[in-house]
Amino acid sequence: AGCYVFMATRNGTVKKTLLRDFSRPRSAGIIALDLVEGDELIGAQLTDGDRELMLFSSGGKSIRFSEKQVRSMGRVSRGVRGMEIGADEHVVTLLVADDGLVLTATANGYGKCSALDEYRSQGRGGKGLISIQTNERNGDLVGALMVATTDEIMLITNGGLLVRTRVSEVSVSGRTTMGVRLIRLGDDEQLIGLQRIEESENEGDDDDEADGEEDIFDV
């Protein structure tokens, strides 16, 4: 097994390329994959040839498959279908399936954690399984993370609001459920991203006193 760069695009294409193929970078950059018009790269992960990958779509679907189902290709190749998506959907997240929980979040500020075992492995290129309900209350799926209960996450809105919360405060529920409120949003405000924050041993009591506060930054 070697070391690979595994990539996914908005339209559901995936590609695996040996890391050594990127060993001679140029000042202007080098081609990583051939994108069709209207498509874009949404994520890249380092893998060892034996991992399982997960794709999540804006329609609340997800698919989990072995990277062995994707052959290694050169940098200028286009890739293969990783997930079949609807005409009004797009892929939002690429994850390496790892130990922990799968946290999903939606545009209207709702989300949940689910056990990884709820996402059974499937064949590459399928429509996937429901990851979280997307409806008028929830809105579209905007992101997913592999998390541990000791982690914290940062939630980011299109209004420039960043809110930090503990994963332990997010309920664990089944894959097909609607989830709970993660963040309160203002009128016309939406959640646009989330990021995992690993627990730091250097964080002290000062941080605990600030829990619940919402700081606004320009983004």
Keyword list:
38% strand; 219 residues; disordered C terminus; single chain; globular; four-stranded antiparallel sheet; mainly beta; 2% helix
Describe this structure in words.
By secondary structure, the chain is mainly β. 2% of the residues lie in helices and 38% in strands. It is built from one helix and 16 strands. The chain has one helix at residues 205-209; strands at residues 4-9, 13-18, 41-47, 52-57, 61-66, 80-81, 91-96, 101-106, 110-115, 129-130, 141-147, 152-157, 161-166, 180-181, 191-197, 215-216. The strands form four sheets. It has a four-stranded antiparallel beta sheet with strand order 3-1-2-6, with no helix packed on it. The longest helix is centred in the last third of the chain and has 5 residues, at 205-209. It is globular and about 45 Å long.
In terms of topology, how is this protein built?
Blueprint (H helix, E strand, L loop, with lengths): L3 E6 L3 E6 L22 E7 L4 E6 L3 E6 L13 E2 L9 E6 L4 E6 L3 E6 L13 E2 L10 E7 L4 E6 L3 E6 L13 E2 L9 E7 L7 H5 L5 E2 L3
The largest sheet is: 4 strands, antiparallel
> What portion of residues belong to β-strands?
35-45%
Mean pLDDT: 89
- SSE order in H/E notation? EEEEEEEEEEEEEEEHE
Whole-Å distance between the termini?
40 Å
Radius of gyration: 18 Å
